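Entry:
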Amino acid sequence: MKNAKCKVMTQCWTTPGQEWYQADMQHTCFSRRQFLQSSILAASALGLSSCAWAQGSGRKLPIALQLYSIRGDCAKDFDAALAEVAKMGLDGVEFAGYHTYTGKPTELRKRLDDLNLKVAATHIGTGTLRGDALKSTIDFHQVIGCKFLIVPGDRDFTDPEKSKTLAETFNKTAEVLKPLGMACGYHNHTQEFKKDGEKTFIDLFAERTTKDVILQQDCGWTVAAGYDPVALMKKYPGRMRSTHFKPTVIEADKDKGKKAFIGQDSVDWPAVIAACRTYGGTEWVTLEQEAYPDGLSPMKASAVSFVALKKMV
């Protein structure tokens, strides 16, 4: 089911050496009663009995912060940024670069342990999964305790021919990683929903890859593209072991007082959370704050969304 056509203005980071993606995207404050009503409706929409909903709601979903959300803080003082994230109460982090810890996995692991932070995943380039580079990638991430290696963008994904080779790269990498308790995957933006014939590129990638390859759905970008994130989870059950929660306001809602904070935006997060527990196989919920309403700093904006998300989860 498609939503009304939406439009958001933001940029999304890919990996070093790749271009920035420019996407059309603009980013309900729930009262207690509204939240409960939304939860019940979400369960009903998913076809869940009240018993199944209650069981699903009992499964813990740890929350991480994608550090791109606070990239300026990380670039300025990475240790201080990590400390602030830990103080905020998050369970873990998802990396978008290692700053002062590049090539220093042992030191980074110690820092994370001292702060009681886990590693939910990392965003890295496709090149780190190919050839001789893969061994170094595995070694580094095993030390820091990161099992999900996610590519946040690759031009080949939406190329009718190159996308086939890209999918095979992920399949081969997944074979190597699985015995190690690790996995690789791909993170969507909006362009992955473009079509090649009758199918979207994200559907083609899902069909061409094994179930061991993670589909790290960014639910905010999915809604921005006009699609339903819950439907995508139901279509590919168990493949969204890592799921991104990006607060998003669609064009149709921009004059309704909504803001790009979890619970104040256009995404039906209670329904998404229910789907994560029931269909997605989600092990980590990762907050990615790419807009900073009300003039808040990236850290403070991330904190606002985290508090709201923690209450929902």
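The longest helix spans residues 162-177.
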